[in-house]
Amino acid sequence: MTTKAILLEAAPKDAVGGASYIRVPLENLPAGRPLPFRLYHSIEGEYILYCGDGKVLKKEERDRLLQNHLTELYIARDDLPRYRDYMDRFLAELLVARDLPIEQKVETFYSLAAGIGTEVMAAPQKPESIASASDVVRVAIALLEGGKEVIHRLMALMGGQYDLVTHSINATNYGLALARVVGVREPRALLNLGLGLFLHDVGLRLLPQSLIQRKGLLSTEERAVLKRHPLLGVELFLPGKHLEESTLAVIRDHHERCDGSGYPHGVGADKLSLEARIAQIATAFDFLTTNNPSRRAVSSYEAVRSMSREQPGAFDQELLRNFIELIGEGRTGPGPKGA
Ligand SMILES: [Fe+2]
Ligand SMILES: [Fe+2]
């Protein structure tokens, strides 16, 4: 069946209804694998069947959709369990595919993490979102077992514009890589740290987006509102009790500084967990090396220089030395980050 014919095939009338469909980022649909669920387009509020289950999305077809800025398709809600099984299997396969070149593993991981991250950020406090985020973190932990080469290859992909999803993934990668270097090997500790990093900025979603996207300097009042995001993030997860204390501490303390100059509580190094001190470096480094509404990205070198010289004592010096050694010759992706 040609693409055109597939496009014209209408979904059954009784299946149509906004709440019955779930957005799926195209990044989650790798080429060359049979898809065990139906996919739909959304065209002017109508859901039109794009392909039935068992369809293999060819690379050229996927590329063409992306070229046409079609970055999302939809699945029917009753296909959700099949979709989740598929994603779990795919992530697990990525781990055991020893014959896959490292650059392909890293690229596939980053693309899948971006797709899953988009879903997670839509409702991060839901148990299924935490489960999906945990899957991504476990794969990141396993991949980063490959050492410096893996983080350097990831850094080549982590370029460009700041957004919440990529910032969360990048911070997770940097933090887990640093944790490994300083000897954190206990699976539960790594998972809790990774989850905290993945979810560290979800409180930003609860603030007015006009404030987050604002170019230029913020007023004192606006900065005070922005500084509420670590605690808003923690509060979001408290009712569900799905996150452990060490994960909540990463979310709460990622803007604290060892010299007490951070927020929300201005506590010093003696009150900050190792995981929180790792998160402070990982999140600050990615923020500095990414273009965002308030400032342009700087190079990796300038970022670590700023973190060690212009803010002396703000970051754990021993961890920062390890981090500088870790990122070494690795360079963040094209554009200002790679300068
Ligand atoms: Fe933050
Ligand atoms: Fe952040």
Please provide a written account of the structure.
This protein is mostly helical. It has 15 helices and six strands. The strands form three sheets. A two-stranded antiparallel ribbon has the order 1-6. Strands 2-5 form a two-stranded antiparallel ribbon. A two-stranded antiparallel sheet has the order 3-4. The N terminus and C terminus are likely disordered.
Question: Key terms for this structure?
Answer:
339 residues, mainly alpha, two-stranded antiparallel ribbon, two-stranded antiparallel sheet, 15 helices, globular, disordered N terminus, disordered C terminus
Strand order of the largest sheet: 1-6
Distance between the termini: 47 Å
In percent terms, what proportion of residues is strand?
A: 5-15%
Low-pLDDT segments, ≥5 res: 1-18, 333-339
- The pLDDT mean sits at 86
* Structural shape: globular
User: Which ligands accompany this protein?
Assistant: fe (ii) ion
Radius of gyration: 21 Å
The SS-based structural class is mainly alpha
Largest sheet: 2 strands, antiparallel
Can you write the helix and strand succession as a string? HEEEEEHEHHHHHHHHHHHHH
Which percent range fits the helix content?
A: 40-55%
Instruction: Enumerate how many helices there are, as a single number.
Output: 15
* β-strand number: 6
Task: Describe the secondary structure blueprint for this structure.
Blueprint: H1 3-8, E1 21-25, E2 34-35, E3 39-43, E4 46-51, E5 55-56, H2 59-67, E6 72-76, H3 80-96, H4 102-122, H5 127-144, H6 148-157, H7 164-181, H8 187-198, H9 209-212, H10 220-226, H11 229-237, H12 245-253, H13 274-288, H14 300-310, H15 317-327
Helix pairs in contact: 3-5, 4-5, 4-6, 4-7, 5-7, 5-8, 6-7, 7-8, 7-13, 8-12, 8-13, 11-12, 12-13, 13-14, 14-15
The protein binds fe (ii) ion (2 copies).
The site of one fe (ii) ion has 5 residues, from helix 13.
